[in-house]
Amino acid sequence: MRLRFIFSQVWKGLRSNFALSASVMLVTFVSLLFVGAAVLLQNQIDSAKNDWYDRVEVSAFLCAPDQNTPQCAGGEVTQEQIDDLDAFLKSDQMAEYVDEVHFETKAEAYEALREYLEGSAWIDTVDPEQMQSSYRVKLVDPSEYDVVRESIEGRPGVDVVIDQREQLEPLFNLLNRFTLIAGALAGIMILTALLLIPATIRLSAMFRRNETEIMRFVGASNGFIQAPFILEGIIAALVGAVLAVAALWVAVEYFIQDWFAESWLRIITSQDVLMMAPWLLLGAVAVAAIASYVALRRYTKV
User: Fold this and answer.
1) Which of 46, 173, 209, 231 is buried most, with the most CB atoms less than 10 Å from its CB?
2) 55-167: CATH class
């Protein structure tokens, strides 16, 4: 009987204050949408980092003919210098850092360039003899790229040493900034929800002040009087959270997965959304319950 009465009061409050309840649902929906998007984006960035960094290589480009750089002041790399570098990379000294070594000749570099620039007029302006031969070094531990790079730089015949990690860092830093922006927007919306929920509950309690006074007069406890108002806030926030989870699931399942279906990277799936969903729902319930309880204790006389 008590539960039936409490839920009847909850339904009455939601119906009579539909606009305010809908605003709580909407704010919760947008807040958790940003929170979920930020979490999924960060998961994708971390996954991409692991996939990319496992494939990080250090590339040592050797001096080509007529190359005007300080490192190549002695002219084109000689076969002796190539042999010395090859022996160094395959030595016991580098064995703990170097997994595989691949030498790309000028002819192979030219063919790769032709394939990359296929159909472009630029390819006819390049002479195969102008190409740089190079070493591609796959690392045992990609985080040790600095050690390998510093060991190769400055050796005779080496023009420049490039590690792919340095090229990838700006991209991941940019993506991390997007995560921070999404997180900041989520924080603003959560703060809005924390301000809106107490206001909604406060107004609901004011509209039904006569009823709560009667309940207090007949001996109802504070918990019994407050329960319908707290449940109103929880239900409104919970509906918003469910809508946010549903929107994230649809976006990942029918857009993200389709757009990146051919990618070799591990792309976030709807399963990731479902694993995150309980935390979003619990967060919505906790925020709504605490905000409602504080509003009743501080601002209403029930």
Assistant:
1) 231
2) alpha beta
